[in-house]
TrEMBL record:
Signal peptide: none annotated. This is Biotin carboxyl carrier protein of acetyl-CoA carboxylase. The keyword RNA-binding does not apply. It comes from the Bacteria. Gene3D superfamilies: 2.40.50.100. Residues 40-67 are annotated as: Disordered. It comes from Variovorax humicola. Pfam families: Biotin_lipoyl. Residues 49-67 have a biased composition (Low complexity).
Amino acid sequence: MPLSHTDVRRILEILDSAEHLESLDVTVGEFELHARKPGASASIRERAPQASASRPAASAQGAADAAASAAPPAPAAAATAGSEALTEVPEGLVAVRAPMVGTFYLRPSPDQPEFVTVGAAVQAGDTVCLVEVMKMFNTVRSEVAGTVERILVGNGKPVTHDQILMLVKPVKGV
């Protein structure tokens, strides 16, 4: 099943919104999409190339042009199912937000402990969770030092871009 224009648009939105992601290579059946942010360093692929496809690979610009004619993606109503959806941050707390649409994980792997729990102390820059999209795990860090007050999303649950994942009470005077 080839990727639709909407699928390509969503992939490009993920790349655009990901702060620490410079490029994406996606293969679905015989369709290949290679997208790179402007100014991204040319790096060697970490994975061995797949068998050559009978269709030519789509460039990021060509995919962007094709996606531009597609309708905007429908909102994912199920993305907040099973989670405490907050749209506003309570006074005195700082939100840790999802950098992109994906799956929320509190553990680096199923057999390891959670990055944080409610009541845990965190420092600015500490990893507090991961958001996975298409087998790529993106680190989410705390912007402030403080204490984790609430975790709003269950492990393994889908999240939307900019969704509040957890709340941190900042340490005063820091």
